[in-house]
Q: What sequence folds into this?
């Protein structure tokens, strides 16, 4: 099963709805979910006069501001009346190689403390996409719902990432073998690879690395299709991407140096050692700017939750971080959508922080001055006058 980022694009074909409500006169209204913090505290006492909105650097006239907590409009100030949609759509995406107990606790927390009756929930695992029926929470105990979801996640993580885990296991065994051969250490789990010539071991290691690269591909079209699907949803949309950090077994430099010293007459081996155990960086062949703009245009909050358990400790081998490139890409997408991003070994803590960051927000509406339907991406900047608050929001929209 190929491990593809954002697995399983959701079905399209729904009635189109855009956050940009277009009229025949080409006067449109832009909706911006805005969150304002002092430290970690959400500021909930701001008024319409506290906000400024700039589009492509030009100050705009704010038409209305609504304070929303969860799904309730707590306060409204209107120069022009709107009908904000506060229905919540949750998407939990699990890009994971194995199921962990802490992952299950994150699911428990969400079902018992976050999900309301009437909320929409979609879960994407390494195998399939699942949608929860709206009436489930009214007819099924939450404990049972949580247990079913954990069972699905455990099964799909096991099945969907089996090939990936197998490749990592083979790489680890091969690295142990190479390390024990050069350091005379007796490492367990290496019998399968003992007896291979050094050039055969290095060739096999390279093949396994290439296999991993193919299994960890990033499909830009699916990412963009998913953003378009989300844009067509009427309401507030939250994507929580649980991404399990990746580690690749690499020989320690002292072990590599021993092999190079003992094989000076074999330049093919010296070259292979340098290529295989040098600094590796995945080629993420996606247009980051296009991805950022498309998700910002969809008015969806992307929360990137990057977690892991401690890497395995192996004498002569170190586990090299191999997902910083993915982290950097999705970090930019999260920022562009006003979302939350963080890294921790505890997915429950990450999830709680991200959910709390989503619960409270302002909906700010404005009508762009001299709007032109030119298809260009319009940059949005929201600030609070005379205050040094942290303000998060989507970065803009396409004028189409």
A:
């Amino acid at each position: 099963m190929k491990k593809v980022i954002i697995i399983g694009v959701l079905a399209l074909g729904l009635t189109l709805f855009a956050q940009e409500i277009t009229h025949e006169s080409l006067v449109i209204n832009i909706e911006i979910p805005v969150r304002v913090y002092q430290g970690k505290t959400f500021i909930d006492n701001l008024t319409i006069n506290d906000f400024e909105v700039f589009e492509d650097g030009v100050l705009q006239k704010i038409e209305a501001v609504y304070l929303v907590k969860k799904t309730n409009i707590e306060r409204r100030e209107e120069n022009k009346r709107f009908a904000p949609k506060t229905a919540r759509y949750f998407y939990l995406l699990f890009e994971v190689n194995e199921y962990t107990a802490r992952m299950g606790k994150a699911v428990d927390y969400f079902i018992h403390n976050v999900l309301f009756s009437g909320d929409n929930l979609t879960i994407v695992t390494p195998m399939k996409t699942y949608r929860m029926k709206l009436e489930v929470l009214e007819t099924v105990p939450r404990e049972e719902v949580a247990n079913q979801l954990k069972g699905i996640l455990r099964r799909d993580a096991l099945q969907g990432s089996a090939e990936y885990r197998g490749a990592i296991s083979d790489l680890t065994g091969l690295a142990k073998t190479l390390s024990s051969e050069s350091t005379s250490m007796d490492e367990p789990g290496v019998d399968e690879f003992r007896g291979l010539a050094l050039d055969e071991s290095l060739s096999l290691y390279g093949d396994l690395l290439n296999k991993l690269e193919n299994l960890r591909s990033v499909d830009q079209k699916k990412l963009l299709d998913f953003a378009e699907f989300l844009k067509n949803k009427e309401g507030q949309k939250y994507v929580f991407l649980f991404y399990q950090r990746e580690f690749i077994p690499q020989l320690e430099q002292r072990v590599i140096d021993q092999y190079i010293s003992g094989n000076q007459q074999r330049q093919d081996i010296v070259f292979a050692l340098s290529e295989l155990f040098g600094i590796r960086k995945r080629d993420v062949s996606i247009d980051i700017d296009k991805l950022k703009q498309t998700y910002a245009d969809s008015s969806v909050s992307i929360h990137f939750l990057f977690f892991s358990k401690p890497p395995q400790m192996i004498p002569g081998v170190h586990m090299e971080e191999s997902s910083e490139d993915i982290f950097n890409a999705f970090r930019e997408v999260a920022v562009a959508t006003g979302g939350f991003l963080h890294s921790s070994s505890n997915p429950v803590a990450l999830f709680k922080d991200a959910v709390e960051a989503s619960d409270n927000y302002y909906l700010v509406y404005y009508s762009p001055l001299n709007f032109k339907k030119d298809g260009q991406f319009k940059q949005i900047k929201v600030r609070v006058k005379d205050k040094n608050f942290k303000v998060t929001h989507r970065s803009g929209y396409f004028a189409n």
Q: What stands out?
A: The CA atoms of residues 111 and 146 lie 6 Å apart. Confidence is low (pLDDT under 50) at residues 1-25.
